[in-house]
Every structure is written in structure tokens, then in C-alpha cells.
Amino acid sequence: MNEFAIDKKMMRLAFSRAAAGYDAAAVLQREVCTRMLERLEYIKLQPARVLDVGSGTGWGTRQLAQRYPSSQIIELDIAIGMLQTARGHSGWWQKLFGGAKQMQMCADVEALPLAANSVEMVWSNLAVQWCNDLPTALAEMHRVLKPEGLLMFSTFGPDTLKELRQAFKGVDGYNHLNRFADMHDIGDMLMHRGFAEPVMDMELITLTYDDVRGVLQDLKTIGAHNATTGRGHGLMGKNAWARLIANYERLRSNGKLPATFEMVYGHAWKPQPRMTGDGAAIVRTTFKL
Question: Long-range contacts made by residues 238-241, C-beta under 8 angstroms, separation at least 24?
Fold first, then answer.
């Protein structure tokens, strides 16, 4: 058993339960989305259809709708509660930005319910870290993109919550945090899944908290529970909790506890298919062993 595998049922339930209070706590998610939107200023693309993978409560979708008012924006999220909350926010912006063209889908990015070559842009802000099979998710996003379409995404890198990860060492024998892919490995995956001209970069964002409970409460409020199959079941005991606090307190600086997030940004294009001399397309097929 892969102890770091994501329990998708638990993850779906956690995000659905968190949907109502998500926007109030999702400060980092909005900041990263804003930085992604700024990157679009340098990309000349006017997509007819945009797929927002991991659309959540729809804040990013609304920003995309303002940027591309003539585009159809497809909201896709694995948690039905997120989509329901997004629908509740959608009244005013649908009237302003063509609500009849908006669409919602409750689905997993690892098995997209869309036809091949059906969208010009796939956008995903802090969602693909919840994939059990990231290469398959990238292949799916490549499949639904039209040639010359754009994939733009953000995710967490391995140094995310490094302080909390360090504090949990020796507390017990369970996993407490998800495992995140390295930026360079994601770039390689993009190339192997048929994308061209991948651009990857990262930055560190550090939030500060008064205590450990504040760190954990923020993660809980946005639905980012530990959903790995190697997690512990039930509440943490008093002794384990005391060890966690003592370990984290050693990292206190300037009166605050740091929580570092390694933000990974990437974008890549789906190239036109290669052709043989007689005009037949060359199709690359990847086999899993």
C-alpha cells in the first residue's frame, strides 16, 4: 500500500464541508491566483473555452470570466459542495459576463469528462497536488486541449509546510502531511506527456502564526486535511500534541511561528501534431508497465 496515496473519498468530503467558510480563509489561494493572472498579461491567447480545474468556490473562475468575457468558462471540481457554493456566488457576475455560457462539472482531473481537443486553455490553481497519478492528470489535460492550447497551473513543492513536517517528526508513526512533487520532475512529466515549451519556476511564501493551533485551523478551514492512507485515525493524544507544540516552538522567530509554502508555477503548450510526408499524424502512445 502507498501510504502517501490520497483517499479521494475523504478529500472530496473534507472540501465539501469546508466550502461555506473557504473564501474567508483562502488568503494564500487568492494571492497565488492573482499572481497567475498577472502572468497572463504576457500571453497572447483569446480562448473560446477555458477549463478551470479545481475551481473551488469560483473566485478564480470569476477573475477568468472578467479577463475573457466572451469565453465559456467550465468550472470543474471534485467536491460537489465547492461547486454548490460557487453557484451561490455566481448571480451577479453571470449577468455581467455571460452566465449562459458557464458550465459546472463535478469530476476528477485524472479522468476528465470532456472530449479530446475541446478547450483552448486549461487553468488550475493549487489543485493538482491532490492527484494520486500526476502524469495521468497531465495527460488528461493534454488530451482535452486543442493544438496550440495553453496549460497554466500552480501547485505546492516539497518544501511546503516544512516547519510543520519537521515538528511532526518523532511525534508518532503516522503520516501527517501530503507529499508534493519537485518542480523539475513536473517539468519532465510535461515533456513526456506531449507538452512543448514548459516553463517552471517557484517562490517561497511564508505565513506567520501565533501558535500551532492557528496553523492547523487554517488548513482545516480550507479543507486541506491530511488525506493520505497512512494517516492516523482519531484524535492525537495529549502526549503527541505536547511533543508537536514543543517541536514547533523551537522554530519560533520574532515572536511568530512560520509556515512556509513552496509555490510552483508552470505553463506549457500543446503543439500541433507532427505529420508524416503523406500528411498522416504521428501519434505518441505511452504504455504503463
Answer: 240/171, 240/172
Average pLDDT over residues 95-115: 82
217-226 confidence digits (pLDDT tens): 998 888 676 6
Average pLDDT over residues 271-280: 71
Q: CB of 113 within 8 A of CB of 86?
A: no
Condensed to tens digits (0 to 9), the pLDDT of residues 25-37 reads 899 999 999 999 9
Residues found in the chain: 289
| Residue 227, all three cell numbers | 488525506
- Per-residue model confidence as pLDDT tens digits over 184-213: 999 999 999 999 999 999 999 999 999 999
Question: Nearest Cα to 77, choosing from 93, 97, 55?
Answer: 55
The dihedral through the CA atoms of 76, 79, 82, 86 has a sign that is positive
Angle at 86 (CA atoms; ends 44, 108), nearest 5 degrees: 75
Dihedral sign from CA coordinates of 150, 32, 63, 51:
positive
Average of per-residue pLDDT values in the chain: 88
Which residue reads 496515496 in cell numbers?
A: 5
Residue 233 covered by a domain: no
Cα angle 136-84-131, degrees, rounded to a multiple of 5: 15
CATH of the domain at 22: 3.40.50.150
Half-sphere exposure for 191 (CA within 13 Å, toward CB): 10
Domain count, the chain: 1
Cβ contacts of 71 within 8 Å, gap of 6 or more: 46, 47, 48, 49, 50, 64, 65, 101
Query: Would you give the DSSP letter of residue 174?
Result: S
Domain that holds residue 84: 8-156+181-204+264-269
